Amino acid sequence: MNILQINSSARADGSHSTRLAGTVVDRLRASAADGQVAVTVRDLGQTPHPELNEATLQALFTPSEQRTPAQAARVALDDALIAELQAADVVVLGVPMYNFGVPAALKTWIDAISRAKVTFQYTANGPEGLLKGKKIYIVLTRGGQYRNTPSDTQVPYLRTVLSFLGMTDIQFIYAEGLALGADAEQQSLASARQQIEAVLA
Ligand SMILES: Cc1cc2nc3c(=O)[nH]c(=O)nc-3n(C[C@H](O)[C@H](O)[C@H](O)COP(=O)(O)O)c2cc1C
Predict the structure, then answer these.
(1) Sign of the CA dihedral with 144 first, then 146, 151, and 111 last
(2) pLDDT in tens, 71-104
(3) How far apart are the C-alpha atoms of 67 and 58, rounded to whole Å?
(4) What three-state secondary structure class fits 132?
(5) How far apart are CA 118 and CA 137, in angstroms?
(6) What pTM value is reported for the model?
(7) Which of 13, 15, 97 to mutate to test the pocket of ligand 1 (most atoms within 8 A of CB)?
(8) Distance 98 CA to ligand 1 centre (A)
(9) Cβ distance 50 to 81 under 8 Å?
(10) Beta strand pairing call for 38-43 and 90-96
(11) Nearest-atom index, ligand 1, CA of 142
(12) Whose alpha carbon is nearest atom 22 of ligand 1?
């Protein structure tokens, strides 16, 4: 089993989403029937991926044999993210809520992995995602509580974009109310760990 863990907190130490995503990975590792588990960790907070700017768009839309060395190098950075996602059987995402959305670092990753004719394509029947057959776990950490409310833009957004790319089997794990005091924080983290045990039982 190939597991890809994507962290998107800006925090290196003390990130709940990174720690809980690690708990999911540990639980998956422990439950692997054959014990054959490879884990790749990409930390988008500590090693940010470059943004999608005009130069990047020009590089992407230039035929590969005509790219300058700088353009080829830029496309290769996106290629690497796509390759490690294609190789993954299971993807574990750690996602804090930042200002009612996903961290910009995660959006940059999504911009890199969404490539026409590679990770999705348009057919006569409409769009088709090409990253199929993967199990996705997403740990959501929040200071407040937004689950099942219109203010939770993260869940519909992530479900929409990942499904568009073919990743339809998504399990969300919530740690909410982390800023509502020490007791609420501990309860939230305990609840998240229970959710992890329940979904991976
Ligand atoms: C810049 C910033 C913006 C945030 N915006 C929100 C928000 O809109 N809603 C919310 O519930 N919590 C918000 N929070 C709280 C974080 O979601 C919470 O602290 C979470 O645990 C951060 O994830 P981490 O522990 O993995 O770093 C924000 C935190 C930061 C640092």
Answers:
(1) positive
(2) 999 999 999 999 999 999 999 999 999 999 999 9
(3) 9
(4) coil
(5) 23
(6) 0.97
(7) 97
(8) 5
(9) no
(10) unpaired
(11) 17
(12) 96
